[in-house]
Design brief:
By secondary structure, this protein is mainly alpha-helical. It contains three helices and three strands.
């Protein structure tokens, strides 16, 4: 403590000089202040967490945008199919009124039109066969066209997607889609 109170004495010859205490350095003058390491690492950890949060938010936004794009595409596709169905129904209604005016004979087999079968669209082929039989229409008289070109083994696994008139009078094609959830 004597060092702090009085003047520093010059060392005597043959002795080593006494070490002097270091003066405190000003912050930012080169040497870090005590406790600065802890603050810098805490700030660094915050920055790293913030960067991770920004990246996670960006990934979520991209995924959300992709999901909305897929949803918009599905809605567009459905609206296109529905508008096409409305056009088909309008055409069929016109055909029905024209057919009613032309139907003068008793040969119902030759008078069969796709418009007569519009209500079986969306039904399973098994249900459609019951409907046709109830109307005295033989399902064997219809031309079946499947989406995969295969044979209809189990009628319950097929759905009627479209009915269309063929070139020959009274011939109707029934388009069937195979339900993918079944094995046959």
């Amino acid at each position: 403590m004597a060092d702090d109170a009085g003047p520093v004495e010059a060392p005597q010859a043959g002795t080593a000089p006494l070490p002097q205490p270091a003066a405190p350095s000003a912050p930012g003058a080169g040497a870090p202040a005590p406790g600065a390491d802890a603050g810098d690492t805490a700030l660094g950890r915050r920055i790293v967490r913030l960067r991770r949060a920004v990246v996670a938010l960006a990934v979520v936004l991209v995924a959300l945008g992709a999901g909305l794009g897929v949803l918009a595409w599905q809605v567009h596709t459905l609206s296109t199919e529905v508008s096409g169905l409305h056009a088909q129904i309008a055409t069929i209604r016109t055909s029905i009124s024209e057919m009613a005016a032309e139907d003068r004979d008793d040969e119902d087999a030759s008078d069969l039109r796709a418009a007569d079968l519009i209500d079986i669209i969306g039904e399973s082929w098994a249900n459609a066969q019951r409907i046709l039989t109830a109307r005295d229409i033989d399902p064997a008289d219809l031309t079946l066209i499947t989406d995969d070109g295969g044979a209809v083994i189990n009628p319950a696994n097929w759905t009627v997607t479209l009915v269309a008139d063929l070139d020959e009078l009274g011939q109707v094609a029934v388009y069937l889609r195979h339900d993918s959830w079944s094995f046959f």
